[in-house]
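Worked problem 6 (solution included).
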Amino acid sequence: MLPHENATRLLSLENEIASHRTCRGTDTRKNAPAARGPHPTPSAPIMDRISWLMLITLSILWGGSFFFTEIALVDLPPLTLVLCRVLIAAMVLWWVVLLRNIAIPRDPKFWAAVAVMGALNNLVPFCLIVWSQTHITSSLAAILNATTPLFTLLIAHVATDTEKLSLRKVIGVLIGFGGVIVIFGVPTSSTIGLLAPAAVLLAAFSYGCAGVFGRRFGTTPPILTAAGMTSASSLMLLPLSFLIDQPWHLPVPGTSTILAVLGFATLSTALAYILYFAILKRAGASNLLLVTFLIPVSAILLGVGFLGEILMMQHIIGMVVIGAGLAVIDGRLLRRTKQKP
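Solution. The predicted structure is:
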């Protein structure tokens, strides 16, 4: 589950920086002195062992969110569970903000934008995914959530002038949604059988909207934005949870539920946000996109290994097709294939 820094925007920024660095040695002014020696093109960040370890850890943290949800739903209804997630995560993230002595803005427009971000990136997708997991497995929810980059590309194409789809990305998006069609399979007479997977796709669409909307936070410290939007979503969820779930009438949750909620909030949300931006700084946006391929694998291993979930063959095939679409969009595998003699 990606935070507000969407993949398309990050790749665009990365390319702009690389282009700027490449051109720094060339001065087009008249009578400018000639450059001394060749200026090598800067290479993209590479994935060393530590970066791979961080990336795999992040995929386990985000894949684990589906696992923790499945456990916690035994005792807690969806809205209350999501409220616990964002509220605890907000407290942890604000603690990090204070430790780093990050200045807190006072501009009302900033906090209004943060509230919108909290709705798009936390409130709506978290609630939809958690509700869907009351009807479908955590593994299937994770597979469908992997369509987030597909929606992000489409939304960015429509909403921006700088992030238009190339032919390769159009093909990748079509392949990816072909995998979704495979997962849905033959239409069923069960309304819930269609609504629950559709809820995850709507959550992925909301993440895509958050990615494009989050462009305005480019100069804001990411941890501050994350703390702000989890706080905003907590404030929005509080009355909804009280009105619908009435948590004071719920029985005391068991130990496994409490541990799952703590893991959900501290590991899969707060720590995941911090690790995400650490990988972004170390390995770059292009390499960070690899986590999209790993999250469903982590969720499936946890769901099948510890929850006894069983994946249908059409779900496995659909996951492979979605992964193929993401690989086409990413482009690196195709470039390496062309480079081979």
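Discussion: Confidence is low (pLDDT under 50) at residues 3-9, 11-42.
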